[in-house]
Amino acid sequence: MVDETSQLDLILDATADLRSRAGARIRVAIELDVSYSPLPGLRFGAYRSPVRGPQQAVSLAREIAARPALELVGLMAYEGHIAGVTDSSSTPYGLAVRAMKALSRPDVAARRTEAVAAVREVADLEFVNGGGTGSIESTGAEPAVTEIAAGSGLIGPGLFDGYRGFRPQPALHLGFPVVRRPAPGVATLLGGGWIASGAPGADRLPTITAPRGLSFAPQEAAGEVQTPVLGAAADDLRVGDTVWLRHAKAGEPAEHVSSYVLIRGAGDEADPITVGAVVDTYRGEGRVFL
Fold this sequence. Notes:
Blueprint: H1 5-14, H2 16-22, E1 26-31, E2 36-39, E3 42-44, H3 54-65, E4 70-77, H4 80-83, H5 92-120, E5 127-130, H6 136-140, E6 147-148, E7 174-183, E8 186-190, E9 207-210, E10 215-216, E11 226-230, E12 242-246, E13 259-264, E14 274-280
Parallel strand pairs: 1-4, 4-5, 5-6
Antiparallel strand pairs: 2-3, 7-8, 7-12, 8-11, 9-12, 10-11, 13-14
């Protein structure tokens, strides 16, 4: 993924030996920034790329074409301010987020469509990637987009509890053991502080799934070493019991553990839980990306 010429030269320098042996071209894709800036100094969205429009995209595409060892195969444009921001709240903040999303969607679609058309004059793109789980409907309506990066929807992490348009069924649960019962109405878990990336806030904490009726201690929240959970349900927990949490994001748990256990069933008499395969995460496959 590239967005400026210095990256092209870095890629060529880093792969010189490989290319001399294999003779293969390096496949690259352009990153288009589609953050929303309705007024000077006002910006919604991630700082992704200096390429913000068709002219800049074409200029970079020509730079790639001028380097025979590189092959331009794709374009990516992620509208994180639509796909990655919760909007279900009825507060003034929630209303403002929904208004921002509605106003920015036409801008995203227009710039992406224009950039793709312009770049295709230089290279035959194999794919145009856009959006995410939180923008499936709007991103999927754009003819220029060939694939939607909606992997989070497979997991249904905690952040998606705050979306109006999409509510996936939670599919990944993290079990932490009770190791202490320090006071009535309190049970302490070992670990649990898997805090999601992004701007710090309560929405970056894990979501307590089961047993129901538990909450985090305000002064400790979810901690690296211990996580106290409060509520009447804590009195029924014993040392060795498991409390189930959901991470706020989908991919980050794979940075912590080497495998996931696949299960089926609702956990009642009619549909008991059965344990299936154990599958490796990317860390379990020996990969460390971030």
